[in-house]
Specification:
InterPro entries: Glutathione-S-Trfase_C-like, Glutathione-S-Trfase_C_sf, Glutathione_S-Trfase, Glutathione_S-Trfase_N, GST_C, TCHQD, Thioredoxin-like_sf. This is TCHQD class glutathione S-transferase. Keywords: Transferase. One of its GO terms (molecular function) is glutathione transferase activity. Pfam families: GST_C (PF00043), GST_N_3 (PF13417). There is one protein chain. This protein is mainly alpha-helical. The protein has a single domain, classed as Glutathione S-transferase Yfyf (Class Pi), Chain A, domain 2 (Up-down Bundle). Helix content is about 65%, strand content about 5%. It has 13 helices and 4 strands. A 4-stranded mixed β-sheet has the order 2-1-3-4. β1, α1 and β2 form a beta-alpha-beta unit. The protein starts with a strand and ends with a helix. The mean pLDDT is about 95. The structure holds glutathione. The site of glutathione has 11 residues, from α1 and α3.
Length: about 260
């Protein structure tokens, strides 16, 4: 099983947490979307969305985190007594998947940074289109989806309703955690693997005071989840500012140099 991911990609984190919690053997390949490696023809040909995560099982390729999670959950033993909570866990992973973290994240990232990486990505897409005519349509769709996201970010109502969706999901989680220790019951399930990265994203963006502090059950759950070896391996290892800088600064340098040399 080959797993293509990036440590800061929320959807990759969901899948990797599930793989770790289930003790499944996999080979991990890091693909850096900041350097537009997800747009390399070799990767793009297998996953024309150019998104992470991607899971390869022999010749079979899965490109969306929700079906990947569902697939992983069926392997070996279910997580804990997950069998008893299957329906609730399934509801949660779908609900979490429906919330698009991109607008929320991007509205908390400096504009200059978004413009810097966005301009580079567009140039890479255009260069790839010319070099790989067989993929031109797919690259074009990717350009369109980038454009749609930029428009969404300008639409304050859309951004606000995306934020409200998150608030509702956190309220539901608070309600759930008042009755159970984990998201789908009293044992760790795939619902927790999907939800932990959402909380990690809130913390990464330094928004815990606003979103987590007012929800005591959620806060307690979050502290418990951070003690798990899977969290420490998948997310905790990258949660310090120094580690994040180590991931992001070389990408900024790489993109800056390629912009100057026009190497896309
Ligand atoms: N619906 C997809 C979304 C995947 C997604 O947007 N992944 C982000 C990282 S978390 C990504 O690959 N971004 C780079 C890009 O879209 O170019 C899933 O759940 O797998």
């Amino acid at each position: 099983m080959q797993f293509y991911h990036h440590p800061l990609s929320m959807n990759s984190q969901k899948v990797r947490l599930a793989l770790e919690e289930k003790n499944i053997d996999y080979t991990a390949f890091r693909v850096n979307p900041l350097k537009a490696r997800n747009l390399d023809a070799e990767f793009f040909r297998q996953n024309p969305n150019g998104t992470l995560p991607m899971l390869k099982i022999g010749a079979h390729v899965l490109c969306e985190s929700l079906p990947i999670l569902q697939h992983i959950d069926k392997l070996n033993e279910p997580l804990g007594e997950y069998k008893d909570y299957r329906e609730r866990a399934e509801e949660w992973i779908k609900k979490i998947d429906e919330w698009d973290a991109k607008p929320f994240t991007l509205t908390h990232v400096p504009d200059r940074m978004i413009r810097f990486f966005g301009k580079f990505k567009r140039r890479v897409l255009i260069a790839r289109m010319a070099k790989n005519p067989d993929l031109a349509n797919k690259y074009h769709s990717k350009l369109n989806s980038m454009h749609a996201m930029e428009e969404q970010l300008k639409d304050t109502q859309a951004v606000d309703s995306n934020r409200k969706e998150l608030v509702l999901m956190l309220d539901d989680a608070e309600h759930q955690l008042a009755g159970t220790e984990f998201m789908a019951g009293d044992v760790f399930s795939v619902a927790d693997a999907a939800f932990i990265p959402v909380l990690a994203r809130i913390e990464l963006l330094k928004l815990s005071e606003e979103y987590l502090r007012p929800r005591p059950k959620l806060l307690d759950y979050w502290e418990r989840m951070k003690c798990r070896p899977s969290y420490k391996k998948v997310i905790g290892g990258y949660s310090s500012q120094l580690k994040q800088l180590k991931l992001v600064v070389p990408s900024i340098c790489n993109v800056g140099i390629r912009n100057v040399l026009k190497r896309f």
